[in-house]
Every structure is written in structure tokens, then in C-alpha cells.
Amino acid sequence: MGVIGIPLVFLSMPEAGLPLFILLIGMGYISNMSTATHVCLPIISEYYQIDFSQLIKQSLQIFSLLALFLFGYLGIT
Fold this sequence. Notes:
Layout lengths: L4 H8 L5 H16 L6 H8 L4 H25 L1
Helix pairs in contact: 2-4
């Protein structure tokens, strides 16, 4: 995402700037960490002996709060 997507966004929107960059990096992080294929999630659910769906549910609550913060920051600036 960082290598291909961000340069294309800034070529199409040259007036964008740091708030959009922070939003894109943050949403890329959220999408990477919330996928079921991420290596850390099965390891965490196995180590703490919790259900995988419960771990995803708890993680999505935190990620949605981060997304809300990122969009709020973009809206303020």
C-alpha cells in the first residue's frame, strides 16, 4: 500500500498533505491487523486460549476507535 497506493493518491490530489497521509497509513494498518490471515491473531488466540471470533470482535472495537480518531483528525485539519 505504501509503495503503490500513496504516490498515486498524492499524484491525483497534490494539495492533500500530511492529514491524508496519516489517514492512509492508519487505515492500512487497521486493514492489515484486522485480517484473519495475519499471523499474530491465531498465535494470540491460542496463547490466551480464547475463541478466535471473540478476539476479532474485541480487536475491531479498538480498530474502529482508531479509525474514528483518524477521520476526526482529517476533518479537523
